[in-house]
Amino acid sequence: MFFFRATFTRDVFLAGDTLRAFYPMRAYWASRVSRGEFPDWFPYDGFGQSFPAIFISGVFHPTTLLHLMLPLGAAVKLTVLLCFPVALLGTAALLREWGVPRAGALFGALTFTFSGYLVCITNNPTYLLPASTVPAALWGVLRFVRRPSAVRLTVGGGLLALVAFGGDAQAFAVTQALGVLVALTEPVTAPGTWARRAGACLLLVVTGGLLAAPQLLPAAGLVMSGEPGARSLAEAQYFSLHPLRVGELVLGPFLTEPVGIRGIPEVVVQKLIRMRGFTRAWVDSLYVGTPACVLALAGVVASWRQRRTWVFVGAWLLLLALVLGASLPVYGWVYQLLPLWRPFRYPEKLGSFLVLGLAVGAGLGWRRCLGPGGAPRAVIVAGVAVAALCAAVVLGEAVGGLWTRGWVLPHWPEAPAAAIEGLSDNVVRMGATSAGLALLCAVLAWRPRLAVGLVVLQGAALFLENGPLYQVSPAEMLETPPPFAERIRASAPPGEPVRVNTRVTGYWAPPLAGYEFKDRLSLGQLAVLAPDTSVFWDIESAASYLPGRSSRLLRLMGDSRRWPFELAPRLSTPFTVTRTQELPGALPPGARVLAQESLFRTTLLGHPQAPARIHLARPECVATLDEAFARMTAPEPPASGTAIVECPGPLPVEAASGTGGVSVSRESPEHFAVEVEAAAPSVLVVNDAYLPGWTATLDGEPVPILAANVAVRAVPVPAGRHTVVMRYRTPGLVPGLWLGALTLGALGAAMAVSRRRPRS
Q1: Max CA separation in the chain (angstroms)
Q2: What is the DSSP string of 564-581?
Q3: According to the model, what pLDDT value does residue 226 have?
Q4: How does DSSP assign 619-686, residue by residue?
Q5: pLDDT over 50 (residue 760)
Q6: Distance between CA 143 and CA 136 in Å, rounded?
Q7: Residue 453, Cβ neighbours under 10 Å: how many?
Q8: Has UniProt tagged this entry with the keyword Membrane (predicted)?
Q9: Cβ–Cβ contacts within 10 Å for residue 476, how many?
Q10: Alpha-carbon distance 561 to 430, whole Å?
Q11: How many CB atoms lie within 10 A of CB 296?
């Protein structure tokens, strides 16, 4: 019922990266697997990249199977909705394993499942999938370290691997670390068993890693060969949580506009809480419910003498410091000290662990204070303290304008009166509600028989504050081609790829009656074929959005003046979509306007000079990447029909080099053959990304693939008729599959042996 707007309508989850990344990756997976093919290569983003090596592809997650049975929108909707019972049951099981009464376990499970973070991250299921699995993974860890067995090792390791298969490498790493913390803080009941406990902990971590090897090894290969994730500390700290937003945990999402925007308006982010990088929030709410904060605080107060309490509190505070990112030096220290942390980015992604910590703390607080023999007085004290704090916030704003005059106006002097009033009303209303909820917690704790009312209070608070913030959109948005898609697709023969470049400075939400703001923003992205929405129409994007893109390509893209209209067309990009108002005063040389669209104010440019995707060229040899880049970006560009090739040795060149014909036969994106008839020694240029994993043969004999024009591939061919065959296999994929399969086999054998042992 929490997601009734999704459950009882045809509307689908579509906001944010659900549209731009999750849908395209799932659509591509389904299109390939339904034909009995494995998707090794993803050609639709930035001239192509490895699909399994992009950690966020989640290519091995079991929910991908839904796409073989359901339409795309329905499969994604069901995937998203299934995450919430998984989170609920996992959190409840974890708390029950810790001895929390049923009511307290339900309270903690509701807290995590319907926290602002999980509700709002429906705009990016890539991170919802692993986040919802973390409690179950920790439950598996706890059960194994308490009573090791082959079955529990299999379950615990499998759940840890499932976090990795969800698509978030950082969540997998942090879950492993938390699993170690949980294991090592469990009391050891017999002397001399610490070594055994540490060994069991190590065994479980290794098992989880081995089972996840099909995802981990390709990703490791990508890290070593490219620039996935963050390329600097500054970029790593984009989407840092602003310190002001820590108050949302208790008060609620006081920066949001729950109607229309269904989130924090971009102007509020820019003026009041922008840290660096993006002009939107990662999630629009972190609210976990005031009753949860009261119980978590009460649990700490009642257990302050226990060492494990402070270990958990310290771990939570460390997570908070990491989530704050650029506001504190802690994230930078971790970035410098741990090289394996450096590919990770966006500190606010760790918010799921922050709210899980409070949910678990609330459940443990219930056990300590409201369970048999508990200390309800701690809940009363905590409730009164939280109520007093919230009341102070309300009085400060209502009487003295502490929030609006003290922060909003100094940072946003030109703020409209309506915005000031809305922000002020949010703080006063939510602060007063939180104070009332905290006092009700104190009253209910006074009568333990009424404590179950806390569950009702918590559920109502989360529903009222977080329920309006998830976004669902009409399914027709996924099914209606944008203005230029059919024209671009028709320019290429069926089965042949075609590529478009998107050049916009920002995405615009056109004024469309009947559509909410985020729907209009999504329509604006679809209209300009923002990467990777072009997947829906079988159109490749020269622009890049996914993390596995070639670092060589990024270097070319860095020349923002020449890339869109000169370099990209030279690499077989015959179309550019741009905003009409962003067109240069004079059209770039060779470009011509093919079509314009008034509602979205977009223009389609054609580049007739763009060469065929696969063609013969005259090689011009250079020794290094730097030389190739300098030559490609020189004021006088290379002549048409010439390829700048990074050659280990001289290549033969004659007057007729680069002339001849080619015929391409495509079996799949990972396997194609080219019949070449070269008039003289030449290079066969393939204008797709130059990345590890590609191999080539010439007339059946292996030949090297050389880097051409900085970012694409070339194969030297002698004069005459020849056949060039190219194949791709993701580096690390086959060893990863073998490791995972062998680990499963070993676990199966161990379970079989353990079952026979009692009989003998």
Answers
A1: 95
A2: IIIIHHHTT--EEEEEGG
A3: 62
A4: EEEESSHHHHHHHHTSSSPPPTTEEEEE-SS-----TTTT-EEEEEEEEETTEEEEEEEESSSEEEEE
A5: no
A6: 11
A7: 16
A8: yes
A9: 11
A10: 48
A11: 27
**C-alpha span between 283 and 469 (Å, rounded):** 10
**The pair of three-digit structure tokens given for residue 80, joined into one six-digit string:** 């998203």
CA gap 269, 264 in Å, rounded: 7
**Position 70: which residue type?**
L
Of the candidates 202, 163, 169, the one whose C-alpha atom is nearest the C-alpha of residue 183 is 202
Amino acid, single-letter form, for residue 407: W
- Reported as type and span, the H/E element at residue 473 is strand 472-473
Q: Quick one: average pLDDT of 546-574?
A: 94
Residues in CB range of 143: below 8 A, 6 or more apart: 97, 152, 155, 156
Name residue 41's beta-bridge partners: 50
Residue type at 201 in one-letter notation? C
- Peptide linkage before 532 cis (omega within 30 of 0): yes
* Degrees to nearest 5, angle at CA 754 with 750 and 758: 165
Distances (CA, A) of 257 to 99, 267, 399: 40, 12, 23
Within 346-416, where are the H helices? 351-370, 376-400, 409-411
Dump pLDDT digits (tens) for 218-250: 999 888 776 665 578 999 999 999 999 999 999
* Residue matched to tokens 């893109």: 549
Q: How far apart are CA 167 and CA 699, in angstroms?
A: 40
Dihedrals φ, ψ of 432, to 5°? -65, -40
- pTM given for the model: 0.95
Rg (CA), the chain: 28
Tens of pLDDT, residue by residue over 491-537, are 988 889 999 999 998 888 888 888 999 999 999 999 999 999 999 99
Paired tokens of 616: 């013969």
